[in-house]
Design brief:
With 296 residues, this protein is of the alpha/beta class. It is built from eleven helices and seven strands. Strand 3 (111-114) and strand 4 form a beta hairpin.
Length: 296
């Protein structure tokens, strides 16, 4: 499988979409991986998936243990992108020297996941990302600059964030054109969603960064549907209207087993209801991309 590195010039910049939520267990990584794979597999798009979560769940979803360890040993990860151009401070000499212009190439950090008709490439994460929490101011801009410099051959870049507001979330937002919120419709959602939206509004305003809202995806819905969850769903759909995706994802065992097989749900159990739900979501996601970004 080949990456899109060979044709990364003379093309419009890709649109970058971040999957974000302040709460874990909402299906964020599952949706980011399956949507990214589905856009390549069903819609012939060239997709770059960036794992920016120190737990690196998106990476291990798409890579088996041997391939992942080999990549971390021999190639670059998202950690190296944030470390590029950085010069460490020595305790013996605390004065920071002028940073060198060492630039990370796309080919040095990409793992090819799928090709034909579209391409899906992955930039993996690793646990050592936690070292970046205390990075100097301005480091959060390096992901945006990397995408601008190297990723012109992709149609879309999808970023999977950790379930926290942190350095990694800031970096993802600054690199993004739009965001999508996977939301598990439990009673806490009514508290967490407004808090997330308030942070996004404040942060993008402070950084003078324009960001589009692609919508809310209701996920990990249990069946039979508890009354409390039904009330939350009804309230969200009533209050948010078309902002909420028509397609929604149920909590099913097929999704968990797809992670173990390192395949998207729609390839792991092609005839399952989980696969059908995911395909409907992927198609609606593409419709929304076309609508928001005016693409044919």
């Amino acid at each position: 499988m080949s990456t899109v590195v060979g044709f990364c010039y003379n093309k419009a910049m890709p649109k970058t979409i971040t999957f974000i939520n302040m709460k874990g267990g909402v299906g964020k990584t599952t949706l980011a991986v399956n949507v990214a794979y589905g856009l390549a597999y069903y819609h012939a798009q060239n997709i770059l998936l960036i794992d920016i979560d120190p737990q690196f769940n998106a990476s291990t979803y798409l890579m088996n243990e041997i391939d992942y360890l080999d990549h971390v040993k021999n190639k670059k990860t998202i950690l190296d992108i944030f470390r590029s151009n950085a010069t460490p401070i020595s305790l013996a000499n605390p004065v920071r020297k002028k940073a060198t212009s060492s630039k990370i190439s796309l080919s040095s950090c990409v793992h090819s996941v799928h090709s034909n008709p579209g391409n899906l490439d992955l930039i993996p994460a690793q646990l050592n990302l936690m070292e970046l929490q205390m990075s100097e101011r301005g480091t959060e801009n390096r992901l945006s600059r990397f995408i601008e410099r190297t990723c012109g051959g992709y149609d879309f870049v999808i970023v999977d964030c950790p379930p926290t507001i942190s350095f990694f979330t800031q970096a993802a937002i600054l690199a993004s054109d739009a965001y999508v919120v996977p939301l598990r419709p439990d009673p806490l959602a009514s508290i967490g969603l407004p808090l997330l939206e308030k942070w996004l509004e404040d942060y993008t305003c402070d950084s003078a960064h324009e960001l589009k809202n692609l919508g809310i995806i209701l996920s990990y819905i249990r069946g039979p549907l508890p009354n409390a969850m039904r009330e939350v769903i009804d309230t969200i759909r009533h209050e948010r209207g078309e902002e909420v995706f028509r397609s929604q994802i149920s909590e099913r065992t097929g999704i968990a087993s797809s992670v173990e097989s390192h395949l998207p749900v729609f390839l792991h159990e092609q005839a399952s209801s989980s696969a059908k739900q995911m395909l409907a979501l992927i198609n609606e996601f593409k419709e929304r991309l076309d609508g928001v970004f005016n693409e044919s």
